[in-house]
Specification:
The complex is a heterodimer of chains A (about 200) and B (about 70). Chain A is about 35% helix and about 15% strand. In chain B, about 20% of the residues are buried. Helices cover about 10% and strands about 40% of the residues of chain B. Chains A and B meet through helix 2, helix 5 and strand 7 of A and strand 4 and strand 7 of B.
Chain lengths: ~200, ~70
């Protein structure tokens, strides 16, 4: 597909970003650059100095809510964005309400518990909406271990599947950036496939 | 019994058991899991009641902190 076709096709889809940290902020930026115009951004946290080693925020945004800071940054990249911000903790009981109108959701939490929660919620309540997860991206190097797979009908997973954050394996811009952009790349592929197949998760 | 665990044939000691008993027997490093039996999601709170039997296909996704 030509660039203009890709851009115009993506403008009709809505993407959910579940967590606006290292994975979510970078994946949203990549998708906004290539033509996604509608986003649901969900996060309850504020930007902290320690986030700047990997998250798409700037020094002057420290202390701001991540949803509003990310919205500001996306508006500096693309015109005509429609952003829906949810400044709340995502739970099994509110996933449907927050993401039910999305065509695809990027899972971008930091805690394994939250990843488990959204995978179960999306499989149970929103089985027609693809969920693209990030799983294992801490540390340095180990590029050959990173992969993607379709784990279930609507659950896709990107990452190395083994490297957990820890004292000796902090999450850092390069590897978090690789996996978040893998998620964006897979999201792009899935959305364009929906477009070419003429079917969509949501009624426009 | 013989099951297909994450696309690999495995022999598990003993007969039918709950999903949680299977998880305990495997002693996994990562504790946050998503489980499916024969393609169907088995939620955390269902793991003590849903059974795994000979010939079943079990999928376990290990979730890892970081993002």
């Amino acid at each position: 597909m030509r660039w203009e076709e890709i851009r115009d096709a993506l403008a009709t889809y809505k993407v959910g970003i579940a967590g606006c940290g290292g994975l979510g902020s970078n994946a949203a930026v990549a998708l906004a650059r290539v033509g996604v115009r509608h986003f649901v951004l969900a996060d309850f946290d504020r930007v902290e100095p320690s986030n700047l080693n990997r998250q798409y925020y700037f020094l002057h945004q420290i202390g701001e809510y991540k949803t509003t800071a990310l919205a500001d940054n996306l508006h500096m990249i693309a015109k005509g964005l429609r952003l829906e911000l949810h400044r709340k903790k995502l739970e099994f009981s509110n996933i449907s309400e927050v993401f039910g109108k999305c065509d695809l959701v990027i899972e971008a939490f930091d805690k394994a518990e939250a990843k488990q929660m959204i995978a179960e919620a999306m499989m149970a309540y929103l089985p027609r909406i693809p969920l693209v997860m990030g799983n294992g991206m801490a540390g340095v190097g180990m590029f050959h271990m990173i992969r993607q797979e379709q784990w279930s009908e609507n659950v896709y997973v990107c990452g190395d599947f083994v490297t957990e954050i820890g004292e000796e394996t902090p999450p850092l811009a390069p590897r978090v950036g690789i996996v978040s952009n893998m998620q964006a790349n897979l999201a792009l592929e899935l959305l364009l496939k929906m477009h070419l197949d003429g079917n969509r998760t949501q009624q426009p | 019994m013989e099951i297909v665990l994450n696309n690999r044939k495995e022999t598990i000691e003993g007969g039918p058991m709950t999903v949680n008993e299977l998880i305990k027997a495997r002693n996994y490093t990562f504790k946050m899991l998503v489980t499916k039996v024969n393609g169907q999601l088995v939620r955390v709170e269902e793991r003590d009641t849903v059974m795994v039997r000979d010939g079943d296909k079990v999928d376990i996704l290990h979730l890892i902190s970081g993002g």
